[in-house]
Amino acid sequence: MQATTLGYPRIGRARDLKRALESFWAGDISEAELEATAHRLRALARETQRSAGLAIVPSGDFSFYDHVLDTAIAVGIVPERFAGLAGLRRAFAMARGEKGGPAPLEMTKWFDTNYHHLVPELTRGQRFHLADAAPLLAYREARAGGPARPVLLGPVTLLHLSKASGFDPLEALDDLLPAYASLLRSLGEADCEWVQIDEPVLALDATERVQNSIDRAYGALALGPRPKLLLTSYFAPLGDNLDLVARLPVDGVHLDLVHGRADLEPALAKIPADKFLSLGVVDGRNIWRCDLRRALATIRTVADKRDSSRLFIAPSCSLLHVPVSLAREHKLGSELKSWLAFADEKLAEIATLAKGAVYGAGAIEQELRVSDLVVAGRAASPLVRNDAIRSRVQSFDSGAWGRPAYAKRATTQRAALALPLLPTTTIGSFPQTDEIRHARAALRRGTLDAAGYASAMRDAVAYTVAAQEAIGLDVLVHGEPERNDMVEFFGEQLDGFAVTEAGWVQSYGSRCVKPPILYGDVQRPRPMTVELAVYAQSLSKKPVKGMLTGPVTILKWSFVRDDQPLEATCRQISVAIRDEVVDLEKAGLRIVQVDEAALREALPLKAAQRANFLRWAVESFRIATGGVADATQIHTHMCYSEFSDIMEAIEALDADVISIEAARSDMSILASVANHRLNEVGPGVYDIHSPRVPDEAELAGRIRTAVRSYAPERLWVNPDCGLKTRAWRDVDPALRALVAAAKTVRSELT
Question: Residue 542 is part of a domain; what is its CATH number?
């Protein structure tokens, strides 16, 4: 048996890639210096994996921005508007745009994760070709130090994730396959033994359309000279796709035995014995230590029925989704830290399990005993359970979240707020300036005390409110200078959470997040946002929104406990957020925004599980927001997802106003919105993830598109998302253009 991985974090131990990318984009380092950083990070990743005892390491799992984008470029999927560009400049233009350049590709979530991928654009008659030797070069670089296995995004998943106008992207499969065959042939000629080919589309419910495409694709790729193919899927059981996978002409199959454990017995019965099996027994998406004894028993179950030389021991999916190493964590409590495993620790677990599977449990007896103690200790720890919290949460039923009908609330709110037609606002955050970051760093170092930090944050709030007044926005925010992240900020203040020092994971490109660790029962010991929100409101006669993150998003964007149902954990969070909403209202805030950016992302991949999830997700939001008076307006925000299949649930949230990403998709989301009965809607007209600064005419055009799709008296005008990652020099002119565009369309309507 061989220990291996499906992918390793790209960002480096100290977010080295983030810093290099942003320095390159700012013009502070050259392309050669950026490439040198990338080369060093790849070498360190391989060295780390080999030193941990892994027999085969992945190649091609590194990306400067996104692996879906890399694959699209490699097979020639480059929209015409980028034809004049090449190399990294073209890739970054496609990913994030350029000032004065063409609009970038759309961006959405990678299945049910918080990783964002770019959406390839296909045209009818798309011509594919092997346009980029990057996968071959990455393999040659990696194999110099030992066995390596290239990682490719499979052709069916690539097309499934793409968009096309007027035709099904999978119609292009037969034209795409020669490019893949050419790449496989080149890798075979380079003496590559195995290629990992990822088809996570197989984690979705079986459809005739996708199954026929998979069957046709691998029937074609099996022909001719090529390396062995390890077909890989993850995040959910193969389920109804297992029969198809079992008969495909591939040489090995990966099984996610963490999220798809139900596949094990049917897979052993159906997948031919001469095929290799990759056993994903270590959780690649969460940070809890593996129960080694249980995982070893799973491996032994397979080894008793299979030739053990045809088994790989692996994580459930790429380790892209977890932080790099626990070695940088010095402030976590020793008990909690003993329960955790980041990427490097998971490598050790994989190697240990492989050793135990080959040489017997006695060879790893010490590791098994430690694992047993950790598992038992965590289950019995007083850190994870609070009976008072559980009793209070159980007291909430449907009477706790009922509000009068929207029509009644809207009349009361309009009278109280007196806003113009097409009111303008933002999503919540404003630029995190150098001054804000320096103050936060000084607080961490101890060179700035709590009073000095609070004063710095008040200064930032005052600046932000004054700027919004000058710009002319109708509904203001305090700007969130005190918040490092929309979930981590709350994790720092809620009981049952812990935050890390360096637990960073990639969200997209250079954007990294540091999910808090949700390990125990949740409650709010004290108000979290009231003081600065009240201060901001004191600076303006215009309404200021209180800004909170919703319970589902906090749940989804944390490393969440795995010892109880998600529903139970989410309901605890919703009660804590409810307390904050009520306190904001008591303090005089007339609008409270509770963002549920992760609602669509958290939707289970299997349709059979969705109705139950949406039930408790909606209930959690309504518990959180249902304790206020009719005159208090509840907003929510969602971004970068396909909403069409959850619109009924979004309606059921019964938020007074929902703002949604729309600009990067050229307002196409409005087709879904227009056919459903949402209350009030703010489709984003300004794509904040691009450095492009839109002008008034462009924004007015988008507002007019919205007006054609939705009643203007129920429309708001806002950016796509928060402005935290932008600079004031871009934000100020963009928001001035947004306000001017709203006034122009407002005058046309009146």
Answer: 3.20.20.210
